[in-house]
Amino acid sequence: MAASGVVLTPLQRFFAQRQAKVGVALTATIVALALIGPLLLPWATGYTATEFADQPFRLTGPFGTDNLGRDVLSRFLSGGLTLITLALLATAVGIIVGMIFGTVAAYTGGTVDSILMRANDVLLAIPQLVFALLAVTVLGPQGWVLVMVLGLTHAPRVARVTRSAALNVINEDYIAAAEMYAVPRWRIIVREILPNITGPLTVEAGLRLTYSIGGIASLSFLGLGLQPPAPDWGLMINENRIALAVQPWGVMLPVLVIALLTIGTNLIADSIARTFASTKVSEA
Amino acid sequence: MIARLIAKRLGISILILFAVSLIIFFATALLPGDPARAILGQQATPERIAAINAEMNLDAPPWKRYLLWLGGLVTGDLGTSVASGESVGALLGDRLGASLLLMVIAAVIAIPIGLLVGIYSALRRGRTTDSAITIGSLVLAALPEFVIGIALVALFATSVFTILPAVTMRPPGTQVWDFPAQLVLPTIVLVLAVAPYIVRMTRATMIEVLDSGFVEMARLKGVPERRVIFRHALPHAIGPVAQVIAIQLAWLAGGVAVVEYLFRYPGLGQALIDAVTYRDVQVVQAVVMLIAVVYIVVNLLADVVGILSNPKLRTGGAR
User: Fold this and answer.
1) Is the pLDDT of residue B285 over 60?
2) Range of the domain at A278
3) How far is CA A5 from CA A1, A8, B17, in A?
4) Cβ separation of B273 and A244 shorter than 8 Å?
5) What is the pTM of this model?
């Protein structure tokens, strides 16, 4: 690959892939829409949210009204921010917790490792969505509950990936060197191990983000995520789907953006994986 | 050798199931709330509440309630629904069958399609069809199942064509399989949600196997291509692929809930979501436990397939 003598940085290799560009473009567009949407509100739509109250599912205005006669475009423009924020937070929780347990298990080894991995097996035996439903039953449908339960159900999956990546690193000479200098264990984990497993961790973060968006949107769609009257893409789909045949916009707009967003993040995750896979090939 | 491995795996599964039951029980049983009052309503007399508490063992210490609950699970007594006052077992009886029916049909369709498309893609590596399959499976794998479901409903049931029912109707006394047309859309959604992962894993493993020496050897010996693929290459790819199929089937146990909700399909998942909405703890406990059982059994089967199909383990004693 490096036959021309030009060594590409990982970022250049990432953007050399067409699917990476498409993924970044899709994700950036939808995130921009979610961020700027609320700011455009009164004058982008030309209607106040309540102008058509008690005219549910009419096709008045650019995209019509929803189940309570609210302007669909207004709801749509302000409905993405919470979804994206909650998904990012859930991903962060999952990656941080999983990373800590994964590296500690790999580096400590022995009994601690076995106990952590067996606990992992138990947690993995309950499907993510089912765990989320269990948590919502106990704690109620609130934003922080969704973040924590999705994050904590990501964690064992992240821990598994982190552990196997870290196991490849801990026998390297630079770890042994650091140990000889009596560098504290936490510092070896933070300064030596983590920087050397960023590849698999970024791939995992991209995947987890895709699943977080899907998970939070699914819970809202089930009526167990954000509660009315919050404007939210998942909830909009739930509220308006009975009128899909007569007023499709209230459903199709949010379905479309959720689809594009998850496709975008998944393309990014796959491109990151390919970026790091190609390093391995060229080094071999 | 093989029997010992399988027995060990079975033991681990039972231990995991036991640990899962602990998590489910203590997560839900310790939450604030008064099931007796929920059943009887606000006007309940203290005597009636005490009677229900005694009947449901709610005044017993938590560990004793756990043991009673676990005993009930094993003997098929799943408790009483707080919302309806009915027995949970009766409530879930035919729903379990309906859910399993949907899952089995989806699996029976998705597994061969996933394998064949994956193998085809691997054989066409680098060509246009392969790239199209790879991107297509990546896109489908990204989509939440309710997004796929709504797109299909709009396409086939409401907006473009109106050839398939958008929701499941089941008049009393009939079974879900009496109306095959209603099963079509939920099944397609599940297949589209599950197959992409099988395709991707099959493609990746098959590419690796097709590059190996013994496949080249078989081809050089003039073994027909079909035989090379299905008799020589595929068995070596089955282990990792079986793992992914298991993960996907196990995912079905949970993911079916969203699809059932979307199509108002009278299965376990819909019961679970209703129970969560009404905070009907006994039903939630029972359904989550049932789903965990399905999940663990499927994973166990996959590991057994992996062990049986691994040539190194199969001939391990002969070395």
Assistant:
1) yes
2) 79-283
3) 9, 10, 56
4) no
5) 0.81
Residue whose tokens read 């870290």: A166
Q: What is the H or E stretch that residue A200 is in?
A: helix A198-221
- Domain count for chain A, please give it: 1
Domains of chain B from N-terminus onward: 94-314 (1.10.3720.10)
Q: Which residues contact B240 (CB under 8 A, 6 or more apart)?
A: B201, B205
Three-state DSSP class for residue A71: strand
| A242 located within any domain | yes
Q: Are B291 and B246 in contact (CB under 8 A)?
A: no
Torsion of CA B293, B296, B301, B302, to 10 degrees: 150
Chain A touched by B273 (CB under 8 Å): yes
* Residues of chain B with C-beta less than 8 angstroms from the C-beta of A215: 144
**ipTM of the shown complex:** 0.79
Residue A38 lies in a domain: no
Contact: A224, B273; criterion CB under 8 Å: yes
Confidence of residue B201 (pLDDT cuts 50, 70, 90): confident
**DSSP label at residue B87:** B
d(CA A208, CA B22): 27
